[in-house]
From TrEMBL:
GO MF term (any one): hydrolase activity, hydrolyzing O-glycosyl compounds
The organism of origin for this protein: Streptomyces griseoloalbus
Region (Disordered): 300-320
Any GO BP annotation: carbohydrate metabolic process
Domain Beta-xylosidase C-terminal Concanavalin A-like stretches: 314-502
Keywords from the UniProt entry: Glycosidase, Hydrolase
Domain of life: Bacteria
Protein name: Beta-xylosidase
Keyword Hydrolase: yes
Annotated Gene3D superfamilies: 2.60.120.200, Glycosyl hydrolase domain, family 43
């Protein structure tokens, strides 16, 4: 049980890592959540909970990003934006917007699949944050979406469509149903989630930007409007900046809850759980503590569950990596080799981009934890190729990595390199040192504010390397931990590297 939690209370955030733009549903006694995955593969993570506090990662809905060729290289801020998860007609449905292509959907009979291949429901630039609604009263289906100004020149408005009940196509050209420019003080209206409740159409949508914004609620008796609006969650005097964008869920006993994100720099968008009720007089939703985010609160009235969180540690049994890992682009055969023992065997992939990990597709990544911790992994370089290298990275617009490299003299060196956000190639962050056994234990001590310190052990105990540095987020994504193996361009197989005993634990000091 994490600090601040008791048997009767929970502490926010309930998901303390970058589970961006969450949406949530209940099916029976089970709760499911998905989140943005941008350019990482597999995409559309699927999380499960029985109590809305303890969550586990049970799979992904998207095996590969399409078109295949466009996502053969990293596109860190593209791909899957702000999905919506729904359950209708005994199937799970996920709709999302790719800002460069349009609105897609996949569906499946069970949360673990099999999921259909992506279907392009509406093509267009800048179509983002779609959410469907099947109106059980009338049999009609609808869809609402927002706009990305970077692709379309348009923002701060929500467009509504009638949708075919099969979820395969839209039945009209769409109409602006909420224009944020007409609401004094509102800007960057996006991320809509569409519901029916108490005879109203409801759109829960954030505005004001991810760092400083608020959560709005809109309601109308007719889907196409007119809508009236109200701010229902904002920072007030709390330390939860920009509390917004998420989903409403009702438990079987009738309790209402709202899951949303908070932007936390290098940690990305962490997920909070807010109590929710409906105001008896005005009929509007009331989120948190009278519209302010809660830090600690009574747990949902649901059966007690054992503490759980998405997995981080990995022994890589049989050479397979756990669900928590995602590639930086669509993977290719041969990047990782399965075998009979434990350990991740990564091929030293030949690359013309080996000098810049931000451009390398064969980086295996997972989310940076949102609390101070120590990350460790053991590495053995199984390559005789001069220039072959492998290591552990902290990735973002700027990055650092520590690991092993085979020198031109045939020796293996412990190296530590970095690249600033404006740099197009990396430099040494510390002097290379011999690693005579061709193996090392690598560590990152991550403190408050995502301040990191690398250290290494080549046989005589851990020693610090280089300066303390602050992890750097990407444009829309928190910093990532990464494992990578590379070699210079050339002919033939360049060998491999083996990673074992990857673990994230309590801070090593204090």
């Amino acid at each position: 049980m994490t600090a601040g939690q008791t048997e009767s209370t929970y502490r926010n955030p309930v998901l303390n890592a970058d589970w961006s733009d969450p949406d949530v549903i209940r099916v029976g006694d089970d709760f499911y959540l998905t989140a943005s995955s941008f350019g990482r593969v597999p995409g559309l993570p699927l999380l499960h909970s029985r109590d809305l506090v303890n969550w586990t990662l049970v799979g992904h809905a998207l095996d590969r990003l399409e078109p295949e060729a466009e996502f053969a290289v990293p596109r860190h801020d593209c791909g899957v934006w702000a999905p919506s998860l729904r359950h209708h007609d005994d199937r799970f449905w996920i709709f999302w917007g790719d800002p460069d292509q349009g609105i897609f959907q996949v569906n499946a009979p069970e949360i673990r699949g099999p999921w259909t291949r992506p279907l392009l429901v509406k093509a267009g630039k800048g179509l983002i944050d779609p959410c469907p609604l099947w109106d059980e009263e009338t049999g009609e289906a609808y869809l609402v979406h927002a706009w990305a100004k970077s692709r379309s020149g348009v923002k701060n408005r929500l467009t509504g469509h009638r949708m075919h009940p099969h979820g395969t196509e839209l039945l009209d050209e769409g109409k602006v149903i909420v224009d944020g420019d007409r609401i004094p003080g509102w800007f960057t209206l996006e991320g809509p989630k569409l519901y029916r409740h108490d005879g109203w159409f409801w759109i829960l949508a954030p505005a004001g930007g991810v760092e400083t914004g608020w959560q709005g609620a809109f309601r109308s008796r007719a889907f196409f409007g007119p809508y009236e609006e109200k701010v229902v969650l904002e920072q007030k005097d709390t330390d939860v900046n920009g509390p917004h964008q998420g989903g409403w869920v009702r438990t079987r006993s009738g309790e209402d809850w709202f899951l949303h994100f908070q932007q936390r720099g290098a940690y990305g968008r962490v997920v909070h759980l807010q109590p929710m009720r409906w105001d008896g007089e005005g009929g509007w939703p009331v989120l948190g503590d009278d519209g302010a985010p809660v830090a600690v609160h009574r747990r949902p009235d649901l059966p007690a569950q054992p503490p759980a969180a998405p997995a981080t540690d990995d022994d890589f049994p049989g050479g397979r990596h756990g669900r928590q890992w995602q590639w930086a682009a669509n993977p290719r055969d041969g990047w990782a080799t399965q075998h009979s023992a434990d350990g991740l065997r990564l091929t030293c992939v030949r690359s013309a981009e080996a000098h810049d990990l931000r451009k390398v597709p064969n980086v295996l990544t997972q989310r940076l934890p949102g609390t101070p911790c120590t990350v460790e992994v053991e590495l053995r370089l199984d390559s005789e190729e001069p220039g072959a290298r492998a290591g552990l990275a902290v990735l973002g617009d700027a990055y650092r990595w520590i690991g092993l490299q085979r020198g031109a003299d045939g020796a293996v060196h412990l190296v530590h390199r970095f690249a600033e956000a404006v740099a197009d190639r990396e430099r040494d962050a510390d002097h290379p040192r011999l690693a005579p056994e061709g193996r090392a234990r690598l560590r990152i001590d991550i403190g408050a504010g995502a301040r990191c310190r690398f250290s290494y052990d080549t046989g005589d105990g851990f020693r610090p390397s280089g300066q303390v540095f602050a992890a750097t987020p990407w444009r829309w994504v928190g910093a990532l931990l990464g494992l990578v193996a590379l070699a210079p361009t050339g002919q033939g197989h360049a060998g491999a590297a083996t990673f074992t005993r990857f673990g994230i634990g309590a801070p090593a000091h204090g």
